[in-house]
Amino acid sequence: MATYLQAVNISLPNAALPHIQATLSMANDEVGWVFSSYIAASAVTMSITQWLAGRYGRKAIYQAALITFGLGLVFDTLATTSIQFVLARILQGAASGPLVPLSLAILLEVTPAEQRARMGLAATACSLLGISTGPAIGGWLSEYYGWPSIFNVSVPMTAIIFVTMAQLLGEKRQDRGQAFDFFGLTTFSVGMIGLQMLLDRGERLEWFASKEIWVEAIAAVLGFYLFTVHVLTRKEHFLRTVLFRDRNLLLATVISFVLGFVLLPTLALTSPMLEELLNYPVDTTGYMSVPRGVALVGALVLTSLAPSQLDYRPFLMGGMVLVVYANWLMLGYSPGMDWRPIVEAGFLQGAGLGMSLAALARAAFGTLDPKFRPEGSALINLSRLYGSTIGIAVVQLFFYANTQAVHIALAKHLTPFRVAANTVGSIAKPSLAALNGIVTRQAATVAVIDQFEILMFAMLAVIPLVFFLRKPRPSG
Hints:
Blueprint: H1 2-11, H2 17-24, H3 31-47, H4 49-56, H5 58-78, H6 82-96, H7 99-109, H8 116-145, H9 149-152, H10 154-168, H11 182-201, H12 211-233, H13 247-277, H14 282-287, H15 290-304, H16 313-330, H17 340-365, H18 373-411, H19 416-420, H20 429-462
């Protein structure tokens, strides 16, 4: 339940964004913060979960995370401005970071050794199910009970988990003297946050005409530079060098980043397109995301249950090609279409992502020393999370830039003289305004399609990496 709760809250606001924007006066270019703030905060705290649990106790950290998560839910509903809402999402995301690794550790501890692989699969499926069902649940709740209900519904679930763990979960500590590389984590986080803010705020502040953008750019460059030097000059750090010596894990990390780059940004683009350009109600928008989620989880489970003797590389290649094909279908979207092309493309993309994620796990850990698998799993998860948050920033950035460019290209033909030549009588200003609205809608549609093209080419770029993966070792 905790794993599902953490995941579903990533995408719950997706279909409800029109209601949230209207209430909080949130600008269009601030919408991406609803997702990226939660994911980025989660990635940072997830990195230090093992150290926190070893120093203060697994149960104490787990319950503290649940309490903080509940407070974040309450603050979400009390927010009256977009900044307050984003700060509440940051708090909620930071609290969600420890929930997934600690939940998986608890599950594996109470599961017999021969069933741990299936338990890990169940946890992954539960997480992806949460991300996939979030838009449908959020759209339905916000349409009939108001957008605060999408957060209120999670409060009793959080309380149930807290009470259950308080009664049944035993405390467990590892070595209190365990060291953690805070310098490495800090420099890497500063680099990522600086890059994220640069992409999120650049268009609004006219890029390097703003001092803020210069500060964020310097922070990103300096953070990544210090982290790179730190990695090259120190034997042990929070991302062990030995992990990057395994070719399969290194390539899988890059591919996982791109899968994350496609997974959530597609949701972030599709819902606004359905609601603002095709005029679907928010609950219907949420329902239309269900086939994608069903295909994703179903393909993940079926691919994972395939015999271990099979080479997983063809499954990985097939899944990635299917994602590319689904995004190619999205290039045919138009304002005159019905729901069928959207459901079809979403279903195929979900199936491709599910196949790819399952096959990627086998490829990543098939050649890795088992003692490094927990850290390798954390690396894969972090790469997918950062892929999602960077992907959302990139598609939002290019969406608004492309909308303006296409609008200018179309509107230059919309002059009173050109219109009057094909119209009987005078053209009033309200009529010209209506025509301008049509042009804006067309420009936004073209811009959305352009972003699906970016996602398609991102996936195409990493498909050749599959040929460099080593064949996994046979399992004992």
